Amino acid sequence: MEINALREAHPDHWQKACAIRVLTLDAVAAANSGHSGMPMGMADVATVLFGKHLKFDAANPDWPDRDRFVLSAGHGSMLLYSLLYLTDSPDMTLEQVKNFRQLGSITAGHPEYGHAKGIETTTGPLGQGIANSVGFAIAEEHLRATWGDDLVNHYTYVIAGDGCLMEGVSQEAIALAGQQQLSKLIVFWDDNGITIDGPVGIADRTDQQGRFAACGWHVQSIDGHDPDAIDRAIEQAKADGRPSMIACKTHIGLGSPAQDTSKAHGALTDAQLIADTRAVYGWEHGPFEIPGEIKAAWEEIGARGAAARADWESRLAAQEGDRRSDFERAQSGKLPGTLAGALADYRAKLIADKPKVATRKASEMALEIINPIVTETIGGSADLTGSNNTRTSEMSDFTANNRAGRYIRYGVREHGMAAAMNGLALHGGVRPYGGTFLCFTDYARPSMRLSALMGVPVVYVMTHDSIGLGEDGPTHQPVEHVAMLRATPNMLVFRPADVVETAEAWEIALEQTGTPSVLALSRQNLPTVRTDNGRENLTAKGAYILAEAEAKRQAILLATGSEVSLALEARDMLEAAGIGTRVVSVPCMELFEAQPEAYRKKVLPNSGVRVAIEAGVRQGWDRWLLGERARANKADFVGMTGFGASAPAEELYEHFGITAEATVAKVKALL
Ligand SMILES: Cc1ncc(C[n+]2csc(CCOP(=O)(O)OP(=O)(O)O)c2C)c(N)n1
Ligand SMILES: [Mg+2]
Question: Is 300 an active-site residue?
């Protein structure tokens, strides 16, 4: 639609959409940075979506049964900030919009979860939002099956750009959504034909509509500036039983001299350009000035869902028995009160039985206790269920025909799985965990980083955690991954030594409300090394004295996971030689770092020599080997310095010198 025709045919719509456009121009100009073109191009779609379809109540932006709106093309953040401000969402004041991209404002360069209510997820890394949205839609389907449609019944809407659809993760997300027939997922593709380097055609000739259709989606194509066409397309998308993609032909930077060029992608700050664009819009108001009647029209839209929300509140209040408190507990992320006792009893039994199992098996055993109690868990694996041991006995698969199922077959889609789990966690009411091999953290990592940045308590069950996996060889043997994960802020990295520590790690991971966790778990069987004190969760301290020196203490061995039993062997040999040796198990460095100095000093006093043992690279260990009262010439490391190899695990440990003997030799050399 030409601008003049649009203005004449839909004057009210035009004014509302222009409010988004000029706020974007003004905020980007004030910040002297940002992205003007996308909000200017998608303002019509957003105006129709918010104006006529999105179920929300601006005054209560965290109402659990609201429709979710995900701005996958996160660089267009001013679209979202404008919408929140115009509809009168409580966090988003005009001051915040004026402080776009400034330190301390909630209007960050890209939308950040937690800055303002109404920002459903952090986007900016292209493709993440559309992949999160699959998790949002799965959560909705599952919770609707669980609680009934009087409590849960909403849509997930997404705006994705060319960049989102070029990113590989979009394919994983689209395929998963198609397979699961997520009919309440509706994606608007901002089909503007432009990315940063120029026209999309210089790098891509994909038939996007064909691609979505091939994955089982309902597909439409419309003029993304025509309000009637947008409205009709949304109606049809809602009516179809498949997830829907609406290709919206738009003009990036609509109405500006930069329209339809990649110049419009970024910051349009030139004063003359902005003035000319305002003139094209027929917008005669000053910077950040929204006339009262246009603001009022938007506020009316913001209040449109108030009655629906109030009705929902009364339906929640009218629930029978414990249903209301159960629903609210699951929403809050609080664990059922009975879990801690059940896990403590379970650990006491393990200490009595001393099973020798792989920690991946230990994880399954812990989940067999957890899943019947914490019924909001949603498990899954990226096609490695039998290896990750993520599916417990009472779980059934979540499918199009079984929405009550709590186990997701993510397929061979680690990145899509991690992104979907972020969406599940962000939706609320469910607790997602999912597995793959630790080495394939690399394939999931962009979303894992966002779990940490957003502070969502996803649990990553990463098995086959070292050369100890053996014959699959160096392609599958993680070496640097634990270090990389430990380097990630706000992430708990557990490498439990045995069945007891694994159960403890699970308890801590589930207690988190603002931090994701990684469980690095062994393929190979490991003896139970914790032989006393099952009731206190010692993993919660991050590191603790597992075995005290008997002879006068001269050495401290620190180890994690499968290497803890090696450390105990080395201790026996050293004690036999008259060298008193303490073994410290270090299941979680982050939690140990958080302990008070007095506790850390008790565990790591300033005497004797220290050797750490971990079948990975040394990076990350030096704090404990060189700092914390240690001396550089009195510390050493037993681990990996390069990639692994393909051979039976025991031979690999010998080959790479990760043995009790090598540990003893290093201690003796230091003494
Ligand atoms: C994973 C990732 N890679 C690169 C970027 C940098 N980047 C931001 S926007 C963009 C181009 C996106 O094009 P499109 O989605 O078509 O947005 P439009 O130009 O239409 O606004 C790029 C490469 C990013 N944000 N995320
Ligand atoms: Mg584009």
Answer: no
CB-based contacts of 131: which residues, under 8 Å, 6+ apart?
Answer: 169, 170, 172, 173, 415, 416, 419, 420, 423, 447
Supply the pLDDT for residue 595: 98
Q: 463 near 438, Cβ under 8 Å? A: yes
Ligand nearest to the CA of 34: 1
In the block, residue with structure tokens 């994880």: 363
Q: Which sign, positive or negative, has the C-alpha torsion 590, 491, 635, 631?
A: negative
Q: Provide the Cα torsion 192, 180, 406, 122; round to 10°.
A: 0
Distance from residue 425's CA to the centre of ligand 1 (Å): 25
Ligand 1 binding site (Cβ under 6 Å of any ligand atom): 37-38, 73, 75, 124-126, 161-164, 167, 190, 192, 194-196, 252, 265
Active-site entry in 167, 414, 504, 507:
414
Q: Give the Å distance between the CA of 662 and the centre of ligand 2.
A: 57
Q: Whose CA is nearest to atom 26 of ligand 1?
A: 125
As a whole number of angstroms, the distance between CA 116 and CA 507 comes to 30
Please list the ranges in the chain whose pLDDT falls under 70. 534
Task: With CA atoms as reference, report the closest residue to 518 among 424, 593, 437, 604.
Answer: 437
How do residues 622-653 score in pLDDT, each as one tens digit?
Answer: 999 999 998 989 999 999 999 999 999 999 99
pLDDT digits (tens, 9 = 90+) for 313-362: 999 999 999 999 999 999 999 999 999 999 999 999 999 999 999 999 99
What's the CA gap between 362 and 521, in Å, rounded? Answer: 9
The bound ligand whose nearest atom lies closest to the alpha carbon of 169 is 1
In angstroms, what is the span from residue 73 Cα to ligand 1's centroid?
7
> Tokens 């997830």 appear where?
243
Alpha carbon separation from 402 to 149, 241, 395, 433, 609 (Å, rounded): 15, 15, 11, 19, 58
* Closest ligand to the CA of 38: 1
Atom of ligand 1 nearest to the CA of 446: 1
pLDDT for the residue numbered 45: 98
